Amino acid sequence: SEEHTSEARRSLESLLAHDFCPLETWGTISLGAVTGRNSFFALTKTEVEQLGLSRESLIPLCPPGSQHLRRLSFEKTDWEHLKDADKRSWLFWPNRIDAQSLSQAERRYVEQGVSTKVSTAYKCRNRSPWWRVPLTNKADAFITYMNSFGPNICTNDADVYHLNSCHGIVFENRNRELGMGYLPLAALNSATAFSAEIVGRSYGGGLLKLEPRESAHLAVPSADTVAGACAELDSIRPRVVQDLERRDFEHASSLVDSVLLEGSLGMSREETDILAHAAAKLRARRMARGRKEKRP
């Protein structure tokens, strides 16, 4: 009911006054790299072999898309697994800005880009050299921004660069250890899920979209709140990891509510239920609108 939504808003405001903060308080949020043509610049293992490119021409990349980021951390083994599954896990990035000093394989590929008109794509023709993608800072964690349930924060333990199919956050030094270790788990609570529905925008097909500015305003537990709940969060971590593997986001969220909102912050079950229901209601409304838009 509308009454529940207003109560949830009041709960969220009260959390923001003491125990929660905007995500930007934790660090700097930025867009990923824009290639201008992912199909040319983001390469699979097979393409790399066919093109005869050496490791010096490539940078390990978090593949485009965000399905693989619905977890607490993106590990080196996750990246290896996607690479072996022939996902686009390498970025073509010759470490030279002078075309004359390109290797033979690089030069061949750059010429292929010219003949297939990649070099005249908008982003490519507006940079020099066109074949070198401007990199953004390597993120400490990724933030999904096209979501059906809600955003995921996922640490970059694979230490890879990312494209603009997700956002990145670089934590403030003082928050880095806590952010890497606990924020992705702590942020799976119902207050954050409700906040995402309020700050984000409904997009084609009912997806929730969060631009960097909107992600910056996402309400998440503050560093003090997270620091005070580490042991409790550790106790549910294995179960949350299993829930995320099964895509059971609701159950993961209720586990985090029970130890963080109710356990650490002393909210009543009734209050957390109101937040969970309000988030679910806005989510259902957004998805229903998306289904309606899809109909001819």
Care to describe what's here?
- With 296 residues, this protein is of the alpha+beta class.
- Helix content is 48%, strand content 16%.
- It has 13 helices and 14 strands.
- A 5-stranded mixed beta sheet has the order 2-11-7-9-5. It has a 4-stranded mixed beta sheet with strand order 3-6-4-10. Strands 8-13-12 form a 3-stranded antiparallel beta sheet.
- A hairpin with a 3-residue loop joins strand 12 (201-203) and strand 13.
- The longest helix is centred in the last third of the chain and has 26 residues, at 269-294.
- It is elongated.
- The model has no long low-confidence stretch (mean pLDDT 94).
> What's the N-to-C terminus distance?
30 Å
Strand fraction: 15-25%
Average of per-residue pLDDT values: 94
Give the low-pLDDT segments: none
Count the beta strands: 14
Largest sheet: 5 strands, mixed
What does the radius of gyration come to?
21 Å
Count of runs of 4 or more consecutive helical residues:
13
Look at the helices and sheets and give the structural class: alpha+beta
Order of helices and strands: HEEHEHEEHEHHEEEEEHHEEHEHHHH
Strand order in the sheet with the most strands: 2-11-7-9-5
General form: elongated
Helix content estimate: 40-55%
SSE topology sketch:
Elements: H1 2-18, E1 20-22, E2 27-31, H2 38-41, E3 42-43, H3 45-51, E4 58-62, E5 73-74, H4 76-84, E6 90-92, H5 104-115, H6 122-125, E7 141-144, E8 146-147, E9 153-156, E10 161-162, E11 166-171, H7 176-186, H8 190-199, E12 201-203, E13 207-209, H9 212-216, E14 219-221, H10 223-227, H11 230-245, H12 249-264, H13 269-294
Parallel strand pairs: 4-10, 5-9
Antiparallel strand pairs: 1-14, 2-11, 3-6, 4-6, 7-9, 7-11, 8-13, 12-13
